[in-house]
């Protein structure tokens, strides 16, 4: 009503994803007898087709889930270790690893999808991948966000001589300039997904598909080996948890960097935000200060040991951080990596949240890294490979400098929140290091100010950068922005009222009645589907 999206509710399951066709693919699996884990793999595979610039089987990711039959939270980590042959000492700055074969981290997404289905799914892989295969083979018409991405990003990759011969035929054979309704067909990807459905994940991890991937990477000067692929096995981990206003928020533990979000919320729990004017000076000043302070802690103690992490989240340390937030003095510090970045971080990630009628709930965040990842398309396969080694820290002198075989710190934070031991919310977003900022902002809108889930996602958000620099959607009152500047924030409004630079959030809540409530971010092509 009144120009707003309606609340989408269901008693039989819910899929929220960054594209309507992907959400429908997941909902169809639920409707045909699959569960949330089948639907997550189906949705993720469909996203590979309909937003190929964001994620795909050549990427990496993490999943947080509530397994109803076991009454517990589980984490599936499908971010493989840094390749054993990664020549880390060859690089001195992130930009060295933005594109090309040396930027490619070992693909983990396919292994993650298949592990979800094998461990908890109810459907065979051929049924799970059927929707994605049909979309790739038949093609689909581009919507607005896809048009923007192809026209802004695809031609940048196509201009790189080593990458163009396989990239251009795969993505730009049907159009030079994308337009709404233009059909993108990916027959090579359809064949690859069909082969995987028949042969399983081993087709990539040690099989014929893996041989094609390694051969192509090595032809471009890459150093990844089949041993790296075979070693890319998803790992089940125990969740990292922290309380906030009666909720227990669960997410992957380090090397995942999501603990920054928990630090932010733990700091903010010491302030009665709900009594402040919503999106007013006091509200936003406290939130931005807490975010910047938590980012500094995360960077200074990246990938902490369990003992160090317990210390960082301890009441004593949190009280120290709260005192710093409350003192009113400007806070200056990094938000990305140990040293300042060269500019905007072009991360392209996607997140999906799914619930089923059996009580399972899952949130998956997965990515290719940058737009179209490394830009490396393996000829004849339709697979675009990630550039996650761009997120490795190669800065000389950094205490977090990456070594071959290391766990790769990952700025993702798929979350499941519980209340009184029962799941109530799945929430995740893309956005690179902004993920750790924008999810905290949305939680404050939803929990502290009582906004409905869709309204909390639609509320204006900010992206904090190194130093004191902040960009905020221009729906914030200009007088509030001016007052924040007077408090020491180098804050500026985006030209847009809605921008993907502050993420593309998807969420599912479970209401006290037991109904599922879905919410999808209009900053991208987010949509909700039900079985």
Short structural summary:
The chain has helices spanning 20-31, 36-50, 109-120, 125-128, 130-138, 144-158, 164-171, 187-199, 208-219, 226-230, 259-268, 281-300, 306-312, 315-326, 435-448, 453-458, 478-486; strands at residues 8-10, 13-17, 60-67, 72-78, 140-141, 183-184, 235-237, 240-244, 247-251, 348-356, 361-369, 377-378, 383-384, 415-419, 422-428, 462-464, 469-472, 490-493, 506-510, 516-520, 527-529. It is an alpha+beta fold and 531 residues long. The strands form 5 sheets. A 7-stranded antiparallel β-sheet has the order 1-20-19-15-14-9-8. It has a 7-stranded antiparallel β-sheet with strand order 7-4-3-11-10-2-21, with helices on one face.
Describe the structure in your own words.
With 531 residues, the protein is α+β, with helices and mostly antiparallel strands. The protein folds into two domains: 12-234 and 350-391, no CATH class; 237-343 and 413-529, 4-Layer Sandwich (Glutamine Phosphoribosylpyrophosphate, subunit 1, domain 1). The chain has 17 helices and 21 strands. The strands form five sheets. Strands 1-20-19-15-14-9-8 form a seven-stranded antiparallel beta sheet. A seven-stranded antiparallel beta sheet has the order 7-4-3-11-10-2-21, with helices on one face. The radius of gyration is 22 Å and the shape is globular. Mean pLDDT is 94; it is low at 340-346. InterPro entries: GGT_bact (IPR051792), GGT_lsub (IPR043138), GGT_ssub_C (IPR043137), Ntn_hydrolases_N (IPR029055). It comes from Phreatobacter aquaticus. Belongs to the gamma-glutamyltransferase family. Residues 328-349 are annotated as: Disordered. Keywords: Hydrolase, Transferase, Zymogen.
């Amino acid at each position: 009503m009144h120009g707003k999206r309606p609340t989408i509710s269901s008693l039989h399951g819910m899929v929220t994803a960054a594209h309507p066709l992907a959400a429908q693919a997941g909902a169809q699996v639920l409707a045909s007898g699959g569960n949330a884990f089948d639907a997550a793999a189906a949705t993720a595979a469909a996203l590979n087709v309909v937003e190929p610039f964001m994620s795909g089987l050549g990427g990496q990711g993490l999943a947080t889930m509530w397994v109803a039959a076991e009454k517990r939270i589980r984490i599936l980590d499908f971010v493989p270790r840094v390749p054993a042959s990664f020549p880390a000492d060859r690089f001195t700055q992130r930009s060295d690893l933005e594109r090309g074969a040396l930027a490619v981290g070992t693909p983990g997404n396919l292994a993650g999808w298949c592990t979800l289905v094998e461990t908890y799914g109810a459907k065979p892989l051929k049924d799970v991948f059927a929707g994605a295969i049909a979309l790739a083979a038949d093609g689909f018409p581009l919507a607005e966000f896809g048009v923007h991405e192809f026209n802004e990003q695809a031609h940048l990759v196509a201009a790189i001589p080593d990458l163009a011969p396989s990239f251009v035929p795969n993505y730009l054979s049907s159009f030079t300039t994308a337009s709404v309704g233009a059909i993108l067909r990916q027959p090579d990807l359809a064949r690859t997904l069909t082969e995987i459905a028949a042969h399983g994940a081993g087709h990539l991890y040690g099989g014929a598909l893996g041989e094609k991937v390694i051969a192509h990477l090595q032809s471009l000067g890459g150093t990844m080996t089949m041993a790296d692929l075979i070693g890319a096995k998803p790992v089940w981990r125990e969740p990292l948890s922290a309380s906030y206003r009666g909720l227990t928020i669960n997410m992957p533990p380090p090397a995942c960097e999501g603990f920054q979000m928990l630090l932010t919320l733990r700091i903010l729990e010491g302030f009665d935000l709900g009594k402040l004017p919503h999106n007013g000076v006091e509200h936003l000043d406290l939130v931005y200060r807490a975010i910047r302070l938590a980012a500094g802690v995360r960077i200074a103690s990246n990938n902490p040991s369990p003992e160090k992490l317990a210390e960082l989240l301890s009441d004593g340390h949190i009280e120290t951080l709260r005192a710093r937030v409350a003192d009113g003095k400007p806070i200056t510090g990094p938000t990305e990596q140990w040293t300042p970045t060269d500019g905007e971080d072009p991360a392209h990630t996607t997140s999906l949240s799914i619930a089923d009628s059996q009580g399972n709930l899952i949130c998956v965040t997965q990515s290719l890294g940058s737009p179209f990842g490394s830009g490396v398309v393996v000829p004849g396969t339709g697979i675009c490979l990630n550039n996650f080694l761009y997120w490795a820290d190669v800065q000389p002198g950094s205490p977090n400098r990456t070594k071959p075989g290391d766990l790769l710190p990952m700025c993702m934070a798929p979350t499941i929140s519980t209340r009184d031991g029962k799941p109530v919310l799945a929430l995740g977003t893309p956005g690179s290091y902004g993920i750790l900022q924008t999810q905290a902002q949305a939680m404050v809108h939803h929990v502290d100010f009582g906004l409905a889930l869709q309204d909390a996602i639609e509320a204006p958000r900010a992206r904090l950068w190194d130093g004191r620099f902040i960009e905020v959607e221009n729906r914030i009152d200009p007088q509030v922005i001016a007052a924040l500047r007077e408090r020491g924030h180098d804050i500026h409004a985006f030209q847009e009222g809605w921008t993907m630079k502050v993420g593309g959030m998807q969420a599912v809540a479970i209401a006290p009645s037991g109904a599922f409530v879905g919410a999808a971010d209009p900053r991208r092509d987010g949509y909700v589907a039900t079985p």
